[in-house]
Amino acid sequence: MSKKVFIKTYGCQMNVYDSKRMADVLKPQGYVVSESSDDADLVILNTCHIREKAAEKVYSEIGRLKLAKQAKAAEGKDMYIAIAGCVAQAEGPEMMRRAPAIDMVLGPQTYHRLPEMLKSAEEQRSGGRMSARVLDTEFPVDTKFDHLPEESDYTGPAAFLTIQEGCDKFCTFCVVPYTRGAEYSRPVADIVAEAKRLVTSGVVEITLLGQNVNAYHGDTASGETASLGALIRELDEIDGLGRIRYTTSHPRDMDDELIEAHRDVKACMPYLHLPVQSGSNSILDAMNRKHTREHYFDIIDRLRAAKPDLALSSDFIVGFPGETDQDFEDTMDLIRRVKYASAYSFKYSPRPGTPASIMETQVPEDVKSKRLAALQALVNEHQLEFNTNSIGKEMDILLERPGKYAGQLLGRSPYLQAVHVDVSNVQNALAEDADNPYSEFMGKLVRVRISEAGPNSLKGELVSALH
Length: 467
Fold this sequence. Notes:
The chain is an alpha/beta fold. Helices cover about 35% and strands about 20% of the residues. The chain has a 6-stranded parallel beta sheet with strand order 2-1-3-4-5-6, sandwiched between helices. The chain has a 5-stranded mixed β-barrel with strand order 17-18-19-21-20.
């Protein structure tokens, strides 16, 4: 009889990928993925440490799961609670102390050892303990990718694929170097093989993931080292792979080879997430970003010269320690000059253990709130302008799922915009699924003429199917 695992994913795209791979690791152990924790034999919370109060949200969920675990125990049934990801890595022993209901804590580099951790937990439970105390957050000498099984049961036209992990940058606000470890790049052959399997399963678009994805330097079969630009060209040779994206990149690693890939490789989407964090050189220096606003502007100019239709998004931290009114105005000036298609922005919040958390020049909360509101208003203005400029254009849209209304499908543009596509005028008398007469378009690239634009999405009409 199969067992059920429920995995709740917090945070970044890499955690989404990791959660999928944990399911793959558990499949040979007889586990199938459940959509609910209610009937699960094993619950995994795959955590993220980037956002403020991330750990508190996890503890709240653990409290709810503790009650479910006790109820199952009263019925003579077992339920295991595992905490994975970056909060687990950063606070593992403290989590064990604070939440006795936890059975296992594992870091993001150790989830390939889930089967042996489960075995240990089961042995302890059989000894009469309500909760096992299994902790595995040591960075392994080898890499987890050497032990993961082939991915299975992948559904949907778009997929994430981790090619690089870890960070050597040590920005003063960031915990990633401490929770994900040093930079590591997977070999080219392994990535290409995984990408081919994904395409065979119906994937049309692959997003390459890494904490510093454009720092990628993977080994080739000939013993040389390939950059991200070279890897993109290699992946472009895969028949059926229509779109290639990557995230998250760092300005320090945006080299000529990658810029040329944007120019030459049609499958490389004209949308780039290039976090700058601040437009002030003094704040960038305090952040240890190792780039200046002038360097960033130069990169943008080179990218747009190579790919004139390129759209950009970014990350911004508002109210970093020591940020003055002029520093903030420098950031606003940078935004006005670049004009992002979208951006993520947050008030600075201290991450324990990082250098910025103990800086004495913390910015008052009300000042941070006021600055964030002004920055987001400017970004939203530019985002709406970018979307409005799409009206009348024809775009290739990857259809992913049914829309909210009959005769409507939802997809993504090359610029990662959500697009509601009206297909009600298309005759599909031969459609196999009577309940979804437009199912033949799902997972396909289609040509769409954009007719309406809002702050967060577009609407358009189907012109023709591509493939």
